[in-house]
Amino acid sequence: MIRRILWVLVFIFSFLTLIFAEEWKALNGEHFILYYTQDEISSKEILDKAEIYYQRIASDLGYPRYSEFWTWDKRVKIYIYPDRESFLKATGQPGWSIGMADYSRKHIVSYAGSQGFLDSVLPHEMAHLIFRDFVGFKGEVPLWLDEGVAQWNEEAKRKEMRSKIKECLSKNMLLSLEDMMRLNIRNIKDKDAVYVRSTKMDDGSYGILFLSGENLVNTYYLQSVSLVDFLITRFGSDNFTHFCRQLRDGKSLDEALRFTYPTYMQSLEQLEKEWRAYIAYSQN
């Protein structure tokens, strides 16, 4: 009797699951397959934007052009869940998350109606995937470079970033690059905790910063994108590609700088000096 009841309950559960489960539909592009459950028109817009971003990001990073790059069975999959709740439940992301990239499976995941997905989250997560496809995980690629590349591809935010970084410089609120190299920002979980970090003063001496977790994260990401902006805008995307290639091939940061920018920067210390001067004299 009990077994029969259990079977009935299993059947009812399975039946209800089939009724209420979202049916994934697919749109195929040259480099992406987009899976969605609701609005085909907005889904088509996402797919079209993804293809445009792909061309721009791959070009900016100098990704080698070969026939099977994200094509056919190597296409990146984009999943758009019907709402925020189903996205969070499926991915286990924190409540503030509106999108994510899965490096190992080459998936980009978000949900319908997520604010800023089309203009910010989509190019950001795509840049993560393309950058890591290029540099891999074996070289000494600093985390700030990975995060900076992703943010730099959110074009709409560049002007605001340049204004904020000038303000931080004027207030001596920048983390030292030595600190940036040591810090794994993804381990900062408590936004209200106070962190003691180092800063570089105008005379080259070190100072101390006391930052909340939230301010530390914001400062780190702001500096990350500013450093990438400096390297690309000041010295060009070809040199930036060469710099990333040196890191990919196993060179240290100092070695990669010497090989790529021998006249200007041969060490982390010189990178910091040139970057700070660039911020100070730039016109936003």
Describe the structure.
- This protein is globular.
- Helix 8 packs across helix 9.
- The strands form two sheets. A five-stranded mixed β-sheet has the order 1-2-3-5-4.
- Mean pLDDT is 87; it is low at 4-21.
- It folds into two domains: 2-135, Glutaredoxin (3-Layer(aba) Sandwich), CATH 3.40.30; 143-281, no CATH class.
- It has helices at residues 2-20, 40-61, 84-91, 117-135, 143-152, 158-170, 177-182, 213-235, 237-248, 253-260, 268-281; strands spanning 25-28, 32-36, 76-81, 100-102, 107-111, 194-200, 206-212.
- By secondary structure, the protein is α/β, with parallel strands linked by helices.
- It has eleven helices and seven strands.
- The N and C termini lie far apart (76 Å).
Q: Please report the distance between the alpha carbons of the first and last residues.
A: 76 Å
Overall pLDDT level:
87
Q: Count of DSSP E strands?
A: 7
Largest sheet: 5 strands, mixed
Order of helices and strands: HEEHEHEEHHHHEEHHHH
Report strand %.
5-15%
Shape: globular
Number of helices: 11
**Derived structural class:** alpha/beta
Point out poorly predicted stretches: 4-21
Numbering strands along the chain, what is their spatial order in the largest sheet?
A: 1-2-3-5-4
Rg value = 22 Å
Helix residue percentage = 40-55%
Q: What is the domain tally?
A: 2
